[in-house]
Design brief:
Layout (H helix, E strand, L loop, with lengths): L20 H17 L1 H7 L4 H10 L17 H14 L1 H17 L4 H8 L7 E4 L5 E6 L2 E11 L7 E9 L5 E9 L4 E3 L13 E11 L3 E3 L21 H30 L13 H33 L6 H29 L9 H12 L7 H12 L10
Parallel strand pairs: 1-4
Antiparallel strand pairs: 2-3, 3-7, 4-5, 5-8, 6-7
Helix pairs in contact: 1-4, 4-5, 4-7, 5-7, 7-8, 7-9, 7-10, 8-9, 9-10, 9-11
Length: about 400
């Protein structure tokens, strides 16, 4: 099987580029008002509306890490945070679906060339979704590939995607089990209408079922493929050699930061003109409110510093020509997770400050609160898991998380 996924830097792209990283960031900012206007519709539909799907494909914001050969931006890591922040501020559900498109596009860069051609040659703006939980699926080797079965929950954005990536256990060469990723077209899986949630209601995070589906060999790859590796040619984009599972936490953390910024900005706007029902005085004059606003804003700023710092540290390591150590990978994940914890704290602070009026569905603050509560349940946002990995490696112990 040909697992070579790199292309020489002087190879002429076969597809017109979606845009530079800066252009995609500007398009995300320009798209945000429309997503905000559609936020209630998105929640009611339990998925982003068709207009949002078309906007994402038109703007190409999900193509940040797609190789230039297929029209992508080959963007730096921090560009994903720059894109996700305004989207999260506008609509947490839409942002959550889009960050899955970005993350799974970044995974495709490491697949066999033929798989990339399957997805992107005729549809370079294809949307991808996926789920990386291996113990929910089983695959057996057959001639020419694998037969895959399983049921996976939380496949965010799946109802909009044209392809999805699933992870399952497969028998290894020596009889042991190995984790393997499988690339599957939408025609080969079944979406179950299961996404009835209290937060990220419109993210289309349904269950997906595969029943004895044949996956050709070139549409599979091992989990190890997604780990960091040496450059295959000078100037190879760093996404091609980064620890991708580690970076997923950064992209999710950037989305959480955007949701928090949206919540704090919403409450600031409300608090500046809010009059207390009890006293008839301006809420902005209350020292307790001033303290809470300062705390929320400080949490936001600290989260920004952490999330961009994680991007820049990983960029510096890879651009220096070396690979990150176990401790550096664990630190990257921990910083991204802690940024998400700070973002959650910021939302909780303004939620507490907002009083009874915040519980109405008509108040957008209730949507931000529920969206952040849901986002904080993602595995990359689990502080205990991330902190243990970082603490172990800082103490000279082995890394306990094989996905980093």
């Amino acid at each position: 099987m040909n697992t070579q996924t790199a292309f020489s830097p002087d190879e002429t792209p076969v597809i017109e580029r979606a845009g530079t990283a800066d252009e995609l960031i500007e398009r995300a900012r320009a798209l945000a008002p429309a997503l905000k206007e559609r936020a209630e519709e998105t929640q009611a539909l339990r998925q982003p509306p068709e207009a949002t799907r078309l906007d994402v494909k038109r703007t190409g914001i999900h193509r940040l890490f797609q190789p230039a050969r297929f029209g992508g931006a080959d963007a730096p890591f921090r560009a994903a945070v720059d894109v996700m922040r305004p989207l999260g501020q506008a609509c947490g559900s839409s942002a959550w679906a889009i960050v899955q498109n970005i993350s799974h596009n970044s995974m495709m860069c490491r697949w066999p060339v033929q798989a990339q051609e399957d997805v992107w040659r005729d549809n370079p703006a294809a949307l991808l979704s996926g789920i990386l939980i291996p113990n929910l699926g089983r695959a057996r080797r057959v001639e020419g590939g694998y037969v895959l079965s399983g049921r996976w929950p939380f496949v965010s954005g799946v109802s909009l995607a044209e392809w999805a990536i699933f992870t399952a256990f497969t028998p290894g060469p020596d009889g042991e089990e190995e984790d393997r990723h499988f690339l599957v077209p939408k025609s080969d899986y079944r979406i179950l209408d299961t996404w009835y949630s209290i937060g990220l209601k419109g993210s289309a995070s349904h269950d997906v079922v595969l029943d004895e589906v044949f996956i050709p060999e070139h549409r599979t790859t091992t989990v190890d493929t997604m780990r960091e590796r040496e450059a295959l040619y000078p100037g190879e984009p760093i996404n091609m050699r980064a620890p991708l599972y580690c970076m997923f936490g950064v992209y999710i953390g950037g989305t959480a930061l955007g949701i928090a910024e949206g919540a704090v900005n919403t409450y600031l706007e409300q608090a500046r003109s809010r009059i207390s029902r009890a006293s008839g005085k301006a809420v902005s004059d209350f020292p307790t409110q001033q303290v809470k606003i300062a705390e929320a804003l400080s949490c936001i700023e600290a989260a920004r510093l952490l999330i961009y710092g994680a991007c820049d540290q990983m960029t510096e390591i890879l651009e220096s020509g070396r690979l990150p150590s176990d401790e550096e990978r664990a630190r990257c994940r921990a910083e991204a997770t802690f940024a998400g914890q700070l973002a959650t704290r910021a939302v909780n602070v303004v939620w507490d400050a907002a009083g009874g009026g915040a519980i109405y569905e008509r108040n957008p603050l209730s949507r931000y609160f529920c969206d952040m509560s849901a986002a904080n349940r993602h595995i990359t946002q689990n502080w205990d898991v991330s902190a243990i990995s970082y603490g172990r490696t800082a103490l000279g112990l082995s890394l306990d998380n094989p996905t980093l």
